[in-house]
Amino acid sequence: MQWLQALPILISVVLGIGLTILQPGERKVRNAYIMGSVMLTAGLSFAAIIAAGMADTAPACTLVRFSSEFSISLRIDGCSMVYGAIVSALWPLITLYSLDYMSHEGHESRFFGFWIASFGVVLGIAFAEDFLTLYLFYELLTLVTLPLVMHFMDEKARYAGRKYVVYSLAGAAFAFIGIVFLLRYGTTLDFTYGGVLDLAKAAGNETTLWAVFVLTFFGFGVKAAIFPFGAWLPDASVAPTPVSALLHAVAVVKAGAFAVLRLIYFGFGTDFLRGSWAQYAVMTAAILTIIYGAARALRTPHLKRRLAFSTVSNLSYILFSLTLMTPAGLVGALAHMVYHAVVKITMFCCAGSIIQKSGREYIYEFEGLGRRMPVVFGTFTVSAFALIGVPPLGGFVGKWMICTAAVLSEDPWAYFGIGALILSTLLTTLYMMTIFVRAWFPVGTVDHEALSKIHDPGPAMTIPLMVLAAAGIVLALFSAPLIEFLQAVSLNTL
Amino acid sequence: MSSFLLLFLVFFPFLAAYFVYPMRRRGREYRNLYVRIIPGVEIFAALLLLFAPGTVVLPQLCGLGLRFEAGSLHTTMAVLAAFLWLMTALPSKEYFADREGVNRYYCAWMMTLGALMGVFLAADFFTLFIFFEIMSFASYVWVAQNENPDALRAGQTYLAVAVFGGMMLLVGLLMLDHLLGSLVFRELPALVAALEDGRRGELLAAGLFCLTGFGAKAGMVPLHIWLPKAHPVAPAPASALLSGILTKSGIFGILIISRYLLFSSVEWNGVLLLSGTVTMVLGAVLALFSVNLKRALACSSMSQIGFILIGVAMQGYLGEDNVLAAWGTVLHMVNHGLIKLVLFVSAGVIYLATHALDLNELRGWGRNKPALKAIFFVGAAAIVGVPGTSGYISKTLLHESIVEYVHHLEDIGRFAAGFQTVEWLFLISGGLTAAYMTKLFAAIFVEKRAEKQRFSAREYMTPATGLAVGLTACLLVVFGLTPWVSMQVIAERSSVFLRAGESHGIFRYFSWVNMQGALISLCIGAAVYLLIVRTVLCRRTAEGTVYLERWPRGLDLEELVYRPAVKGLAFLGAMCARTAAGLGDFLVVAGEKLLYLKAPGIFVPKKNENFGVYARKPKRFLIGETFAFDLTLAGIGLVGALTYIFFTG
To answer: Which of A216, A241, B181, B513: CA 20 to 30 A from A276?
Structure first.
């Protein structure tokens, strides 16, 4: 039974490698193989999550044991469920979208081979039981997604790929330092709610440990694009759109946030960190990133880059909420993780459709496109409102939870965070509205002839869009069960 | 019954909005009929709600749950909203006959109705906030509807103010939630009473944040900037709704805060009184100087909002004896909604025929159109407060409440000069109202016809439009003549929600004492019109009177302060961000230069446009060449950590 949680990870990696070796020539066969693999992995992953949810104490599954302290092992707890479920729900949808999208881009076997394998690796991060396992899959994720980023292999893509790898690996190296210290001063490397530090050992070395925590935070924060280490993310938007949508809005960047979550709540422990200068250092970084990302997004005319900067900003909402170091902060972070994932992935998919169908990438070229592509721009508009945080859509619930947590923490520094959230909402409104306002309300002369050739893409692309947009609305409207679940997770009372 | 009606009123328009496009596909006529039926159904439901007060809670929705309540002011405002929607649906067909993107307008129009119902029927601040935000964004479409640069710019302003207000409101509500633990209106007074004295300051701060949010929507100075910009560019039916009822949603919020949270706070009432007075006077002055018909009406709305805010403040000052102030506030809200419907829809009729809003081009257009003349006259008289119209009743009540407080202060021997000033400013603003409405009326309906005027061949007003404005104008007169059986009933019903005191006997609306205020205002108005408008603001020429734009063009709060401030801050922020963001890249590049200094076959590009290092031989797999660097970095981290362990362990 406990092997169930290892199955989706192993199977998807094997199937992914299989695709790159087999290289099926027939499109139908290949598509069936890809969809089959992804659906199988997602099914197994959900089965594992549900099984873990039913069991009283989730069993651990040790894959490899090196010594009494080191092992590669998996266990699904509340946070794993949330992250694992987001990923497993979104992956099949985006795969459906990208089967159509990638048919114009070439090298599909290579692309989808790594695509399927990275699904397993992300699940590995979600299901990891200890820091060593997390670290292993974290490094693997960088490597396995690199070919996806560099898919076009032109100068821009190689540049972006290199930047991505340099930043990620260097960050992981910093994170490694933290893991060593946790081993040295902690009781175990297994994730323990409330932290693993042995306070007797730590006594006297608090300053060192706080410094190491800050290093580790920034190390993991690189993937979550924390300022000033987020520069790789906008550049990585040269990747094919499904990659930007799934990896650079959900899987990879949220892996960074997820690792930070593990670090704060299950590694160093909130009791040890709360009130220290280390907390204020990382909180300040998150607050700065919130504003930085939003401000840069406003100044960026390229659609996908603008969305990437917006991701930078929104990821730091999550990081800010985590750095509040209270259970309520954890709820806020997880809630925003869910809502941002659904919303941003929709927007990237819309962006992909716009770029593919119209060949236009800069937002000043979108004049009058709304009436030609009603489905794409309709879903985009709904998602943009959700991102802005117009109630009752998704972003609002996340923001409300984060703001409430910040107020509840009664920390004066956190009030600056609320200010930053509000400023960023204002900026979000501006940078989002400028994308679609001109599309719906064209001003001046519009080239009707050029426009008349543009139309909505086929159902393989529009269905995922509509499903995602609808999911965003439903999740937000009926958010009470989700929030209750997250609250249970945050108190470790699942 | 009431729970069904409540949910129906709020959610039905959202549902109905979805079907605008399908109806259009069946035919334009179907769509036009459809958009008239929906508000008709709404007003029917709203009227039924009069007989079915009650509450409904949807605990599962939107995280914290939604709560709605019917009864008292909730129902009054819901009926008013539905009535205005129906009355703007009638002229819309004519107004939008040859326009583009009408379905989009109707879609947003219905969603705004639903959102507005949500605001007025909300039983807690959370619900109110949710629908308030939806309303802000849905009504953006109205402002931007005409798709020209002016409209988009006004839309920008509208949106910026709305979002800023929304965020301030959110801050205020978060503080309240934290402070009191509940946002349900009914529970608030008890919670506030139980609050320890040391935290009153926080309560006031939260209230002021909320005031910023609600005030932005209401058009309170200094957040009024969107009003004069948005109205001239929006379609006329939308302008009527924007100023007639959307601004009232802001007032509604302010009312709740002042009646349920800060009932006896002197500072709060002072802020309200001050901002109300400034808004009232400034709006009237701006309207007097305006030569654009719709801009003048928009500034007039601002001024009337000031009157209402003074009423809200007086309710707080008067404490137990505030029943007249409460009545005046509610009635002026209702009246202003109806009056602005008449005036803006009339302006729309004029615009449709002439395609102009400038008074010099409109001059004399209405000379031979008695029906419209009469209707516009009633609207103008009502907003001025001429006895016999509904405006007189509400303004008299508001005036009376100030007078009452002045007497109260004199009785207890306190200094009353401040309130006497407010009273005089109140009367002077009433006078300015009379002056600018006379200016508009005289320009359009009395003066000699302008030469280069466009004449449309068709009838200038369809029966449906005539019915909408005519019916509303009749209502204004009927209300004004029979206050005891019409307006007072509305006021009594509504002021229960405002927790007003008991009324003492019958108020004599038409007694000489109460007439005096209106007459003083009218005299001031006549004086201002003759001495200022006829001399400074216009010039007599051979072709007739020419109205002059005397307001300095540069004197615009938005252009002078807000936009430069935002731009400056953005520039500063971008500069800091770029500098700091370059740091990471700089470190990596410096590190690379160091590491690859003498490696064979590899070069560092001189100009760092592409950041990084490329192999000279592109055939080799890229990662193999440069992966070393990444491993080195990882290795440095590893070595550092291990060294530390060895030396300390």
So the answer is: B181
pLDDT confidence bin for B596, thresholds 50/70/90: low
Q: How many domains does chain A have?
A: 1
DSSP, res A247: I
* Per-residue burial over B411-438, b = 16 or more CB atoms within 10 Å of its CB, e = otherwise: eeeeebeebeebbebbbbbbbbbbbbbb
A473, part of any domain: yes
Please give the Cα distance from B136 to B159 (Å, whole number).
Answer: 8
From residue B409, how far is each of A41, A244, B317, B324 by CA, in Å? 79, 69, 11, 17
- The b-or-e profile of A49-65 (16+ CB within 10 A means b, else e) is bebbeeeeebeebebee
Taking only the tens place, the pLDDT of each residue in A170-201 is 889 888 888 888 888 888 888 888 888 888 88
The chain-wide mean pLDDT, for chain B, equals 83
CB–CB contact A295 B573 (8 Å)? yes
Sequence-distant contacts of B221-225: CB under 8 A, at least 24 apart? B221/B275, B221/B278, B221/B279, B221/B282, B221/B302, B222/B557, B223/B161, B223/B164, B223/B165, B224/B279, B224/B282, B224/B283, B224/B302, B225/B157, B225/B161, B225/B557, B225/B558, B225/B562
Q: What is the dihedral of CA B18, B22, B27, B32, to 10 degrees?
A: -10
pLDDT at B601 over 70: no
The candidate with the shortest Cα–Cα distance to B532, out of B446, B447, B428, B450, is B428
Side chain identity at residue A47, one-letter code: A
> Identity (one letter) of the amino acid at B595?
L
pLDDT, one tens digit per residue, over A311-326 is: 999 999 999 999 999 9
Under an 8 A CB cutoff, do B164 and A426 touch?
Answer: yes
**Dist. CA A71–CA A107, nearest whole Å:** 37
What is residue A64's DSSP assignment? E
When CB atoms are compared, the residue of B104, B580, B630 closest to A169 is B630
> Would you say residue A158 lies in a domain?
yes
pLDDT digits (tens, 9 = 90+) for A260-296: 999 999 988 888 888 889 999 999 999 999 988 888 8
Across the range A80-102, mean pLDDT stands at 89
Residues in A touching B584 (Cβ below 8 Å): 167, 228-229, 231
**Residue keyed to tokens 């990662």:** B623
Query: Which residues in chain A have their CB less than 8 angstroms from residue B613's CB?
Result: 162
Q: Compute the distance between CA of residue A202 and CA of residue B68 in angstroms, rounded to an integer.
A: 54
Give the pairing type, strands B54-58 and B544-547.
unpaired
Contacts of B211 (CB under 8 A, 6+ apart): B172, B220, B254, B257, B271, B272
Does A382 reside within a domain? yes
CA distances from A361 to A30, A354, A365, A380, B215 (A): 30, 8, 7, 15, 39
Alpha-carbon gap: B60 to the closest alpha carbon of chain A (Å) = 5
Q: State CA B578 to chain mean position distance.
A: 37
Identify the pLDDT of residue B615.
40
Q: How many CB pairs under 8 A join A and B?
A: 162
Chain B residue with minimal CA distance to A183?
Answer: B645
pTM (two decimals): 0.81
My answer on whether omega of the bond before A8 falls inside 30° of 0, hence cis, is: no
CA distance B235 to chain A (A): 15
Query: For residues A8 and A55, is the Cβ–Cβ distance under 8 A?
Result: no
Chain segment B210-241, per-residue pLDDT in tens: 999 999 999 888 888 888 888 888 888 899 99
What gap in Å lies between CA A125 and CA A146, rounded to an integer?
Answer: 17
Contact (Cβ atoms closer than 8 angstroms) between residue A442 and residue B147 = yes
Q: Which domain holds residue A32?
A: 7-490
Q: Considering the domain boundaries, does residue A2 fall inside one? A: no
CA of B171 vs chain A CAs: smallest distance (Å) = 8
